[in-house]
Amino acid sequence: MDNFFNYQISNELEKWDLVAIDYGERGPENSFIYRYNLPDTSEKEVLADSVIGHYEIKASHDGRYIAYLKDNSPDDSFPRFHKIWIYDLMEGEELETDIGNINLHTFSMKWSPAENKLLITNRVHDQEKHKMYILTAETRQTEEIIHRPYIINPEWSHDGRYISFMEYESFEAYESAIGNVLDISTRQVSTITEGLVLYSNLKWSAAENRLFFIELHSEYFYLSSISRDGSEIERLIKGKKYERPNYGFPTIPGPLPAADNLITIYPDGIYMIVYNFGFIEDENTFRVIVDADYKKVRKYVSNFVFHSKVSYTNDGRISYMRGKYEQETFPHFYVALPNGTQLTPILKKLASGGEVLVPKFN
Length: 362
What we know:
Blueprint: H1 9-13, E1 16-22, E2 31-37, E3 45-51, E4 58-59, E5 65-71, E6 82-88, E7 93-96, E8 107-111, E9 117-123, E10 130-136, E11 141-148, E12 152-156, E13 162-167, E14 178-183, E15 188-191, E16 197-198, E17 203-204, E18 210-217, E19 220-227, E20 233-241, E21 263-265, E22 272-275, E23 285-291, E24 296-302, E25 304-307, E26 311-312, E27 319-325, E28 332-336, E29 344-347, E30 352-359
Antiparallel strand pairs: 1-2, 1-30, 2-3, 4-5, 5-6, 6-7, 8-9, 9-10, 10-11, 12-13, 13-14, 14-15, 16-18, 17-18, 18-19, 19-20, 21-22, 22-23, 23-24, 25-27, 26-27, 27-28, 28-29
């Protein structure tokens, strides 16, 4: 996998801009969105202000649109609700949507990998119900797709035809949520993970024929895959023995899965970057690269004491993340080749609610 990436990261950066939410001194409730003209970060352009920095910025598949939240509540009201806004980087225009009453703690949004459509899930206020919408960026028209008691961690398939999501059957500690697949055209939902204990949500392969996830099986972590209809499951790589965390309480609050950022799939499906649950024996390695076809594992980047989810540019030629080494005080924004080599700090001391690399439009 190393021989495939033999170009220079410095040359690649000239094709991209960095868009980032920065708290600054105003705090995450009143943040700015900046654009940096890479590779230079000495100057920045303000795209939007009064942005909610708790929720990471999201960019469409072609990088033209970014989506974010702004406060939509009267003064002194509680709970606070938010509204989705979109910025058109090609036209340089900030667009307000009609989607308000967003509860930050029960909300998600994901852009389709195939077209400029934004998937939104949100819990209805004072009801045991989540709704799923799809917002078309060009028209800002919204379509409600389904509603369920719970819709957790939704993920688009790479062709935009299916959506996987998790659903809780109970809130007993350590019980696993179930994994579902939604066919958008028919609105049919199929449960595909009966009897499995998932520690992550389901991530689609680029080939569409399977989904990857972290599984607890026979008291060990596994990187596993499952077919779209749930009929075939393969345990690819065995990790370390699972030990329940001890927070000083009898049980942890809530069921599994524990996180939604444990796996990143490379755009063309060659490999993935996975949180290291003992897939290699190296305590200093936070994430590993996995070749799922050949069941090979190696380090991605070592010795990071903090490390956000790894993301890719839409052409797959740059990976990027927020992280820091032991001697650094603040997390920095780093770029690297997709195999983790040529790791390069781009922006330092970034008090940020997320970053994304987008193509240059001007």
